[in-house]
Batch of 4 targets.
Target 1
Amino acid sequence: MVDKSSSLPASLPTLSSAATGAAGALARPAPKRGRRLRSLNLWLGAAIVLGVALCAIFAPWLAPHDPLDQDLLHMLSPPAWMAGGDIAFPLGTDSLGRDVLSRLLYGSRIALTVAVVAALGAGVFGSLLAIVAGYFGGWVDRAISYLVDLWMSFPPVVLSLVLMVSLGVGIENVILSIVLVDWTRFCRVVRAEVMVVRQRDYVLAAQLMNFSHLRIMLREILPAALPLMITLFSLEMGVAITVEALLSFIGLSVPANVTAWGVMIADARISMHESMSGLLFPVLAIVITVLGCNLLGDGLRVALDPRMRTKGN
Amino acid sequence: MMPNSESVLSLQGVTLTANLGGQSVSALRDLNFSLARGRVLGVVGESGAGKSMLARLISGLLPPGFDVTSGAMRFVGRDLLAIPTRQRRELLGRQIAFIPQEPLTALNPLWTIADTFNEHLTRLGVPSSQRLDTALRFLESVQLATPAQMLRRYPHQLSGGQCQRVLIAMAFASEPALLIADEPTTALDVVTQTRVMSMLAEQQRQHATAVVLITHDLRLAAHVCDDVAVMYAGDLVEYGPARDVLDTPRHPYTRALKYATPDLTGPRRRLPVLKQQMPGLSALADLPGCRFAPRCPSADAACSHALQHRVAPNGHRVSCSAACEHGADTAELQAALPPPTPVDDASPVAELREASLTYYTRSGLFGQHKTGFDAVKPFSLKVYPGEFVGIVGESGSGKTSVARLLMGIEQPTEGRVLIAGADVTHGTPKQVRRAREQVQIIFQDPQSALNPRRSVERLLTQALEAAGLPAVDAAERRKRALALQSDVGLPADCLTRFPTQLSGGQKQRVNIGRALCAAPALIVADEIVSGLDVSVQAQILNLLLELGREHQIALLLISHDLSVVRYLCSRVLVMRRGEVVEQGPTEEVFSNPKHPYTRTLIEAVPSDDARIAWPPVAAGEARAA
């Protein structure tokens, strides 16, 4: 008998769909507890990210001090609720007497700017190549996939260090280096999704109707891959925040007169034996923000997946 | 077959209630039947009728939220409902065996057949020294040619029919008292179906097993079963001796089911169409009486409140009010259909001239070995304006490749493709594009063919967006969409809906409407009704006939279903292994087949007449190569 796998594509009749419909029509939707937990993730993540975004936007109004103002009379003062704390410095001061809360608020501006712009850049660049590769297939796909493989074989930390050293410090260069390192993440994952959508008959139908390639990519394929891209974007924001903190920790990110969470950690490292608060709060800020991005991404993955959506009748 | 009074399975007034967010609905209502040892019960119905739910009920694998609220269910003398879940699961595979619908996915792809068999036999408690012998014996009994080799293979190295036979062998290896076969041949070819069914029947006779055969095919059930139970929306609407049910169906739904399938022999008749569709689970709460009443051609006011059960002396039982049984619908069921009008030889809309298609695969580490597979051997075909041509054959016979050549999805390896007289294999891009607009396709799987993110309006008029056509304004587009929507018989309010909100039949209508939008001369339809229920299939077939008449469109119908081809097409080509083995006017080919392969295909279809034995005896002896 002819081995079916070697025979024609799409030639097997799918009578099965009739019968799976039978089970589907009578089966109940899956248990809801898992779903509710996912939607909790979504809202919690969204709340955290929104909160951080509000802090960043309204930092000049929220901050009690200028983040660079040095108050040498109040060096290394503990948070307000601890013994020796000063209500004027709610979260205490660092070794130069700068207000930790104000620095945190201003630091969130850098963190979020980098997160949004870098994730957007990596997303657009990576997805663009992914759609082209997944849609055309053949040698285009091979070339792009090869590039991705090659790119991913560089250790990402070393790659961003090299880029930062050659580009010089500055927030735009941090963003550029994150985009150049992380576009491959998008490219790999989105390409797989595009290849699945590419097999759908409606893409073939659009081709047979003589639609241009660009139009098919934008109108038929992009909408199907968009939920995945949004999810990845949210996760990438978290990654970008971590990378930015890492680079500013080693002094390769922003100029010295700009406040960033990584810079705060680096400054507090010297005096960590006298006071932990300078170290603790920026670390906490990073952890919470990244967690928020990840929860949001996880929640979006479920919320945007049409397979997990209930069928509207 | 010795009818034995010993009852293996009996259901008395079993009602299965589903809890849908606080609302209780009876998913299966008041089921009564009993199945004796050595008897075969066919459970027939369309998707959503509750057939699979019945199988789950018997095997005790109900989804959460479903509970039996009344009635009794006995299995070889034990009260099934009183047995704790753990013990019920112990019955599975031993006392109650199961043959699934998709043989290829039912076997673990990482295990050889020997592994799978071994595990099953271990569970049955066969000592390890005897397992190999037992496996070989049972594989031999289902007539697998080389059982020893078969054991070493992986599922992907087997055909669907072979896999299904392995599963049948495994099912009978436990000497079960009851076998549940859920659409065991639906995923298989007609010819393979015949072999598998005769194998199943033979094993059933040998072991005197009681079988519940779930199928959507009333004729198949009538031929291989002793009794038939017809289900509709969770109700058992008709139950009786198989031949009796097929010959003199008493419930209007059974009649509709019987007449909705086109015949392969006898006078041509127009397929009667039931309005609407089977209600979904959530709609059942509003139907306290006869659930078929809203669709019933002879329902009266009383039907929607009460449901009557009446039993004839021979055990033929029907759940219907008196009014339905008069058979007032018979005249409509027998309406004659004029034969397809032959088409005079104008210039053909599409032509294949000695076109062939060879797929090359490269093997070896560097792809140095090139092997060709002839999907289509040199092939010539002319389709004239307004003509309906059918191509039949098993899967892998190359019929879809012919469609792909015509659509320009594949370029012929040799030969030429002409559309409206223009050579599309060697023309300029512009010529090719213009010619291509003349041919449209209706896809097999409407689910995959419709972009879930487009509304029905934008799907129907998608062709207007195509490159090269002037852009149309929104009002124009709406007008066109409305025209198409009424052409293909979609409800008026559906233009703003999305594909997920449509039923399978409606999706296929959108699919057809989209193909019509470009005003093509030829439509290629590849297995477009194979995924649909028979009553929906009848609607779509009638729609195609109507469209062909009104718009003078030619249709190339690719199908494995001979009766569908006979209903629609005036000319037929029978394909096998990339070659046309027989062609001619449909009536002539089907009533007087010349080629043995055509005869095999025709014999594989269960006859409308229950007295003609099926599956044919010869098929049981044939072995798959």
Note: Chain B touches chain A through 80 residues (CB under 8 Å).
Target 2
Amino acid sequence: MAAITLANLFKSFGPVEVLKDINLSIADKEFCVLVGPSGCGKSTLLRMIAGLEEVQAGTIEIGGETVNDMRPRDRNLAMVFQGYALYPHKTVKENLSFSLKMHKYKKDEIETRVQKVAETLGLDVLLGRRPGQLSGGQRQRVAMGRAMVRDPSVFLFDEPLSNLDAKLRVQMRTEIRDLHQRIGATSVYVTHDQIEAMTMADRIVIMNNGVIEQVGPPLELFDNPANVFVATFLGAPSINLLEGKVVSDGEKLGVRLVDGSFISVPDIKSPLEDTSVLMGVRPHHLVVDPENGPIQATVKVVEPTGVETFVFSEFKGQEIACQVVRQAAPKQKDKIRLSPTKEGILLFDKTSGERVI
Amino acid sequence: MSIKPSSTAFSYRKINALAAYTIAIAAFAFLLLPVYWLVVTSFKPIEDVFVVPPEMWPHNFTFKNYVNQFDLRLIQMFQNSLIVSGAAAILSTFAGSLCAYAISRFYFRFKSILLLFFLASMAFPVPMLMITMYSTFHQLGLLDTYWALILGNTAMGLPLSVWLMTNFIDQIPIDMEEAALLDGASPFSVLMHIVLPMVRPGLAASGIFVFVTSWNELLMGLTFVSSPEVRTLPAGITLAFLGEFEGDWSEMMALAVMVTLPVFLLFMIMQKSILKGMTAGALK
Amino acid sequence: MLYRVKKAPWFFAALILPAALVVGFLILYPVINGIYLSFTDASPLRQGALKFVGFENYTYLFEEEVFYASVFNTSFIVFVSSALAVIMGFLIALLLHFGVKRFAPLFRALVFQVWVVPWICVTILWGWMFNKEYGLINYLMTATGMTETNMDILFDQTGAQWVMIAGFTWRSIPFLMVIALAGLQSISTEIIEASELDGARFLSRIGHIIIPMIRNVLMVALLLDSVRFFQEMTLPLLLTQGGPVNATMVLSLFTYQLAFENWDFALASAAGTVWLVFIIVVAWIVLRFGIRKEHVK
């Protein structure tokens, strides 16, 4: 059993508070991704779970045991570092066997385990080489192998893919995911890349400025963001945010945008009337509606990506993005009229950023 | 929700830190104790020196030892040491930098051998080198003059200067020099106006190293020079210690402190560049 | 590379000329001349042409007990001092890097003052500290119960040697500490953390990870220090004059005395040549077996 429970965690570096009252439960065997912009505290949180940073307040439980005062090596977890942290003077084989040696495993046990992990990761040919002679991807795999060889109950990843080129990154993403299916150990993965988060996580934990903004499965967070931050963080191109006010057009409530156009929004409750809101519409929910489209914009840039084409237009001084099929792509300087689909409208309170619809 | 501060948070780390601080302070006390003893003894009147147990602090603090030793002879020796060390530092750094620039910026086949030779030359037995130097200086009539010591110390310091400066110059990207040459500057002015100003820390480090080594240099000072007018401090103190010394230890300590003071001050001022120079070279 | 010698020979020549002159006349020539002189009967006391005497000087040396004593003593004192200095310097660097991080620059600066004290001053100080009746060392030893009565350390054969070792070690520790510290700082914290997670306890981390990684740097520093110690003779010259009974007669003092007290340049040159060969052999051994050459990232 290797569930992780974080309760009321606080952490400051000097006068700067980096983690504020963090509460999180990670289930056994879950692949949990901590994602957020630089400085949000995700790496610090990971390191606190590992035992590399001191817990100033709150508790960390792994497998039901409070581990606050436990040394890192006693916590039965393994970590893959951003820079891989391979021992440069040791061969790949020695790198892999080091932790087993430290835990006093028997020689043949070490031999079998190292062989197995090497084969799984395709490293068996490289066992005699030193890290300096390996490519970036190979080094990354050795780092993972080193973590795997001990069969820990928890895997920690600290932005392991950020030093790889784009193509390798995509490849390694699937490999890590695949390994997780096979091994099934609880994993906590830190990244700043929202695509990695979306594609790899069972659950995503979005963090910002030391607090957890939202927790949930990727698509849940994508479709139902709790606030503006989460909405803008996930998805590329990012969600369009249009300023407006909730008014009534006589019969129902809707949002009046800055250019006066009115967009009716189902399910608005009357207490919301007169509030200033930000209307969030994702690019793929913004369709071209030449006759009735309330949003009138001028095309600035057209970006074909091979399958979909993204169109960036200007609306009242703001840039908005929408997605079209490549055949229907407009040209630069065209005037287009856009309309949000009913399911795609998200309303956020302008001041608090919280989601209201 | 109430916040529970972790009471025994990382207690093992705290204990380790305490132990580390204790041992560190002990180690430094051990290392600095002789220096402390040197300074403290120099301020004790001569009678207080011969007591058991020895005083850890001068109860009768006095400057008498310093006053007694500070005579014309000492000033003369100070002057001599200053001239010799200063000249050696300047010459060594000058010749060393030029040579270093050549090594760094020219391609030639035996470059690594040359660098190795410079390093190895610091291992050559000094007395052996001094034999030939003695004969040469004798023939040139340079014995018993400043020049014998200046040249000798320059020779001793040059390999280090070359090494230091080569390291420093290697670290400067070539682009600026290439650009300057393209603009029509002469190679010489490129060296003088572009490169040398950029390696000022290196020049300082080299100068100080040679200065300090020359200031402390004893053998050549004893051998190449016999008249008191040209004698340097180390030689002077040695002769005083071996000759007229009759057990006035506190005065000897005062003398030692006065001899150390100039280089100590110099070093304090230029610390940073020195350390940078040393570690840059060593890590290669 | 900016220039080729062929393209700008005058510039190249001008650059290396000053250094070449100094090194040529005052280092290279003396070494070669010295080796040559060792096969003659050179002496400033004797006028006239030099007589070639073959290996006579060398055979004389190798029959002299004092010569063997000096080689042995030098080796003993130098190697023990260097080893002690490296070990202690490394330990202090460890302390500074892992334990007392915040004050490391301060400590480093303080300790480095030691290097600045001129050798003669250290020598005089050492003479006073090891004084029989009133010296600090004797007081500390009797007060802590290590010895019962005051010892005349400088008159004891082994004692005198250890006084030399103490002096050399004391002076070298700061230098080696700085080198070791720089080496430690070049090891990324990630690697140390990884080893912690891998289960390595403090000693294992040092033995398995840290030492192998800075070993080469320390070896080179050790070699440089040893070479430097071979040249040192201030301490033995002033405190013991090589005694008692040649216990502290080191090669440098021996050679110097032959040259400038006996004025036997030929014999001194022979001693110097042996010294040179000895150093080369030692350096070769250390570099060949002590330094690991492999692809270290």
Note: The longest strand of chain A covers residues 16-26.
Target 3
Amino acid sequence: MRLALLGGILVACTCAIAGTFVVLRGLAFVGDALAHGVLPGIATAMLLGFSGIVGAAIGAAVMMGGVSVVTRKFRLSGDTAIGLLFVGMLSLGVMITSRSSSFVGDLARILFGELLGITQSDLAWQCVALAIVAAIALVSRRPFLLLSVDDGLARTSGFSARLFHNVMLTMVAITVIASFQTVGTLLVLGMLIAPAATGSLFARRIESMMFIAAIVGSLSTYIGLLISYHYDLAAGASIVLTAVVIFALAAIANEIRKSRSHDHHDHEHPHVHGEVHVR
Amino acid sequence: MTSIHASALAIGYGKHPVVDNISISLQPGDLLVLIGTNGSGKSTLLKTLAGLIDPLHGDLTLLGSPAGQMPTRVAYLPQHPVSSHTLPLCVQDVVAMGRFAHLGLFKRSTDRDRAIVLESMQRTGIDSRANEPIRDLSGGQQQRTHLAQVIARQAEILLLDEPTAGLDLNGRKAVAELIATERARGVTVVLATHELADAESATAVMLLAQRVVSMGSPAEALRDEYLRECFGFTQPH
């Protein structure tokens, strides 16, 4: 249980960093596709008996390369290319897994994770992934911020939008690969998005958004594990659902806070409503 | 050195020219005002000057280099800057992004960078909101923030696409003063606008309607026959 909690917190911290940029740049669909794109790689690794992490890395590389090629060569919009690759890779993953003698068990383990079966070697991998993701975010924080506003702003500031977009995708892929053991490929998107989205409600700086996301993710891990233990429920799903519920509660609290502050402002300044626009 | 030089320049998207045969020669401190209806080619020309779109053919240099090669010396304000309404960033952080071209990946921001950011916010009148999230500001205040970001670049060429959009009368006056101050410092400004009044202090005006209708001093370029051709009406005298 202690290893599971540690593993969950490491995943929460990794997802907080990558998820912040996923939310800011609007990459949720790409994140989802990457999470499913690793499925055939992991399934093949399981079938042939090599490392799931290596299989996931190959799957993510194929997914990222495929999206780039389909977008450029066939002049399709990004989301169509991502959608095509997404369902294609997911189907391929399910087909490969169906060759396994323990099809249902293997598929469930890949999709929903096996947090309670986490080992010290998995923890070591997660530490390495956290360090790599943190280093990428630290070095690329300026182009990532500019990309979060606009590709053009990044380019006119002297940064290659394509290069740093791909660096950002690589960071998301590393996060997915490091997290699938814990929450599974299906639910890792929840850990990427829900805590970061909660952070975006309250933060005024990127660093504070990451910090809030890491706290929410870690808290979700703790509460989710408790729920899972006491009610005999799936650990990964309990953690992600807790993160989504925390987001919902935070969003409601934020709306109440904003409407109260609006009422207070109207009371203090009854005739002031922004600028007069003369066009 | 000539700030912007273009000859026989054709601009557009893909292989389709929007405007061709453009010639520009601007010196430090000049103001070129681009006027035209929506879709006339103003924004396409500014994006080409900013290096975001490749020229279809012809010559184009900014400060002696091809467009897009001088990020520290050329600053561009897009027509509708992404308002950053979902970004958890306060105003001063958005303005500080104007310094990133100088800082690159690894340089630490210095006291000088911070002083430039503060001064840019003061000049656009947004300094009192420095610590507020940009998403909580009105459209006009967000526009002032993006203008401050462009000013913070301390570039030698400013490419401004409708910088007064969404601003009230005071905001418009502040932008006009800002442009005048920048020009006095030797900064070359290219300004796209719908407002004929913005052309009064220009060195040159280019009237666009998917071709160059006229180009020259404000008096020459805004003659009645050109305005009628471009907009279907003339200025009241």
Note: Strands of chain B lie at 4-13, 16-26, 31-36, 57-62, 74-77, 157-161, 188-193, 204-208, 212-216.
Target 4
Amino acid sequence: MPELSYRDKDTVIHALSPLVKLAWGGGLVVLSLIFNHPVYILILFLSIIPMVRLAGVGREWASTLKFALWLGLSIIVINALFSYHGDHVLIAAPFRLPAVGQPVITLEAIAFGAVMALKLVVIISVFTLINLTVHPDDIMAVLLKMRLPYKSVLVTSLSTRFVPCLVEDMGRISDGYRTRGVQLDSGGWFKKIKNRGKITLALLANSLDRAVQVAEAMEARAFGNGKKRVFYKDITISKMDAVTLGVGILPLAAGIAVRVLGFGDYQYYPKLSSIGFGGWEWALPAIMIVLLAAVVPLAFLKRRVEFD
Amino acid sequence: MIRIRELNFTYNGADKPALNNINLTIEDGQFVLLTGASGGGKSTLCRCFNGLVPHFYGGKISGKAEVQGMDILETPPKELATKVGMVFQDPENQLVTTDVEREIAFGLENLGYPKNLIARRIEEALDTAGIAHLRFARNNELSGGEKQKVAIASVLALHPEILVLDEPTSELDPQSAEEVLRLLERLNDELGLTVILIEQRLDRVVHLVDRLLVMGGGKIIADGTPGEVMNGDIGGLGIGLPPVIRLMRELKSHNAALNGLPLTVKDARLRLQKVLRGVKPVAFTDAGASLEPVLNIDKLWFAYGERAVLRNINLDIERGGFIAVMGRNASGKTTLVKQLNGLLKPTKGKIRLDGVDTRKSTAADLSRRVGYVFQNPNDHLFADTVEDEIAFSLRNRRADEAQIARAVEGMLEEFELGRYRKSYPRNLSGGEKQRVALASVLVGEPEVIVLDEPTRGMDYVLKKKLISFLDDYRRQGNTVIMVSHDVETIAECARRVVLLSEGRVVVEGNKRDVLAKALLFSPQINRLAQALSGYGVADTTLTVGEMLEQIG
């Protein structure tokens, strides 16, 4: 399985300002939540593909996509099995349940589940793309730019940095238990929970030890000495970045406007409404496509400006 | 310059002082080695140099301590950071950012230096530490040795006048440790940096330093050049002398023509060549263990995903044997021994314990017969008291309480842990924790015991006790399997050595066949013996005792 953490790569997407990527990606997540129309959600999903290709992270994305699709499939199945709304009954159970009535699987429930699943795929894909193309310290720098307190941002960043250590610790502590005769994965659920609880306590003790060591190392390197901190790799915004950032935010702004004006909604129950757009309304998704894709030529332009 | 007068320090809640009337002056540009038994106050003293003691830890302090003219009792560590750089034992827990460049910038950013100065300092630090090629590397992808070099670079960037290192090589393999020590030598030699290094393995560093300080019970119990300290009465210092020095001390007591002490194998060779007369030829007879195998490894392959880590291992481990498993980092040593108690299961092939395929049992079941001691004792410690910790496995087997009480008492006595019986295990010192971990495994009386790097970071006294215990344990018909990089310990106690490389057994056999005449894995005495073979010294000599038999 390919590694899903940031790697430095020489691509136009990696070269984009982290602010642009976070604004564009954040916009996509918000849009996927506020839109209900399947065509708009599909557009959001398709807009990720060129970004992924240009960033050269297709393999990594494909591996998370596989996971997201399984998760999506489970949403479709669960919604179909437990949501009995909708007029088009595809399968009806030959029995009735108290308080629920006759369980049925409807076309509407499947369609609703499918669009929810696609929203989930969009959100997971955005997080994957950001994770693979934005340096974790740049995320921290962006948060600082947004005037979040440095110490809180640092604590968050340190917590994520030590997640792999925590996973390793857990493996070692579990092995420690096994070598002392504890059957961690057998017995009833109560015993399993009790055993896992013991591991958590040992893990906590390890983490506290680690926290003291990290704090000591930071103190020894003048952390919190009262002087105004400088950020060596601060995020600077060139004119080109400012333009790209503006363009990166546009899909979100336009999407919100579309929704406020009452477009982009879709009715799933009791009957699926028509998927097509009446009159000039087709222009709205077309505009969204253009705006979502506009960041790509600007990414190339930025590269050219830098070379010049 | 560091000037300490009548310094006493007691941690909050402790009943005895960690530092007891310390008087010490360290001149600029010295390379000082600080050693001594575990819990003797070395780390506390080092943390005084940059103010972590008392400002970070808190406690009761009295006396005077000045570093480069600054009063430590009044100056917090963050203000001393540009005077004293400190590198810690664990390479993982001192790196706070995600990549090398940002790690080096961290301290400079905290000090609010202008960006152009930070850029210059980063360049200097990268070049000085010899890690320019790692500039954009991610910290979590570095090896232990590289992480320590990054930690050193990140404090060098602050331009400290004194560099303090608390056992920086104890978690590294020999090659990485060597690289880090070479870097320190260069920093002291070429840049005139004062270096204060805590280290247990004197053989690694003693030839590099100007001064040797030994601490014990919170006091400085020996101070002088390495030659002076090691030439004097070392009884009670709790330090392990490098084998060549032990040999020369023994020889000197009989041969007045030998002057001074050699600090390196080369030095010892030159001195011995001058006085070597009669050599008594000996034939070493290494007593063999039983031929009956307790463990049989048959065509073993193991892979993590698609990456093969062990490749076609075939090995019989005989009952009553003492087997050392050696090899470079990532050669598959730990992966191999984890198969023996079922923590990992073969991808292909079989391991049989007394003829029974281990794949049919869980690690928990196998633990009754194959004990496993992890490198980090914290991985063993879960209980609230030392007593409960030791009783854990027996209680888990639902043994009779009277039997448990007897077994626990036996272990407390064996490992001298009686006075800690009600203590919280994680609050003990490193050496004490190691003893609790060992007791907690051995209380189950496994017939095979596997130890992963048990002597790493261990002081001399503890190491000696552990070796003698394991030897007794083996004599009772049990089997000891030890993963280690510690060639000197292996030469003393192992009977058979298995050398792994890239997941394959490259050499395996009697320790004499494997360790003697090897380039990298031969002990100091064997390197000396090889050079003296022209005089009739057997080139398979491994230990001081064996050498003395021939030339003593």
Note: Chain B has three domains: 2-231, 243-275+535-551, 293-524.
